[in-house]
Amino acid sequence: MRRSRAIHGAALLLSAAFAAPAVADDAVIARVLERIDGRQIESDIRTLVAFGTRHTMSDTQSESRGIGAARRWIKQRLEACNAERKGRLSVRFLSHVELAGRRIDRPTEIVNVVATLPGLDPLGRERVYLVSGHYDSRASDVMDARSDAPGANDDASGVAAVIAIACAMADQSTRATIVFAAVAGEEQGLLGADRLARDAAAEHTRIEGMITNDIIGSSLGDDGVRRADTVRLFADGLTPMLKTVLANERNQPGEDSFAKQAREQLLQIARIGGEHDTPTHQFARAVKRAAEQWQPGFKVQLVARRDRFLRGGDHLPFLERGFPALRFTEPVEDFRHQHQDLRESDGHRYGDLPDYVDFDYVARVARANAAALASLARAPAAPARVVLDTQSLSNDTRLTWEASPEQNVAGYRVVWRETTSPVWQHQHDAGKARELTLKGISKDDYLFGVIALDAEGNESAARFAGIAQ
Ligand SMILES: [Zn+2]
Description:
The chain contains 11 helices and 18 strands. The chain is of the alpha/beta class.
């Protein structure tokens, strides 16, 4: 550890001569975060609740009640704030008809509301980050399309956060493309998100990261303790890989591209470890780093699981198709205020009402998202390939990497951590070099990655250092 600290100290000195600051300093991101406001989020959540129910099979004709009115309002809200900011968002409905199935009793139009902020870099714009919330809601019976289902926390909170981030970023410049989505059919089986993920896979869209915000509304747990300084981020890329490879072995002679990629990554893990270093884990670390840097005191708690037990979310169809995907959820849930008919029972009020939402907390989660999305979309792409040199017995570490494919890379940052640490612990800026030897840092004892930086110090996600095949 003493040696590692010595190098870390040297890195701080070197960074003075380096083109990018050691900590990101970007006026664009500061401005985006300032624009996110708890009072506006409150107003949007109350408007969504006022549609009575937003059940996927509820009325679509009324202008005041049901899912049709809700989605028309979401689209108009995004268009209005884009116009106000003279923004670059293109807002549209993406719809398909879902046939009767397990949680759909008649053919039903599933409509996603999607706003796209196109990247401005000719190569970078092919890189896509997607952030979502689901605007459908439910009562106790998942097939009940008539009863009131306010869904203030589940998931008007997520939709209001997505609207807030989209409106704050509408007129900003990013290298990569960001897609803001309010999806439907989550409660009926992740139908809207599944369609987005399926289309992205079919069109070979390069989704570098997807985040669903689902139940991000309350800082007060069912234990009565308020935790307004934490949000959980569910991040697991390993189990979808295992599932895909095992399913392919059982069922099909041929492999799809994700199964092939998953098999290669599992082989790499079998050789050198790194079971917490899938692209999903790297994306989660990058989200945590940016979110905590830009909003000091607000902690992103990484959970290396796909989701909570007995629950799922809109990130799952993305994970299953090989895209890095995460879920933000409040720290301790109160299940009396989710998926419940409005009623009084045993001295408790049940139902997902705005009374149980902490609007300033939603704003903090929205800022965590926005800091991460803005910095990742403004940073260049990570180096395509990073190789850990294991050709000789040595107590040093030598890394080489391919250049980031995008222009205007200000430099590269090598990061490393102990094999049992969830987050990067050390860093050393390499300037524009494409190799680095860390003297006295043994490759046997650490996991390594390389990050690409822009001139403001915005970081890409780390590319994990593998070994040459
Ligand atoms: Zn939900």
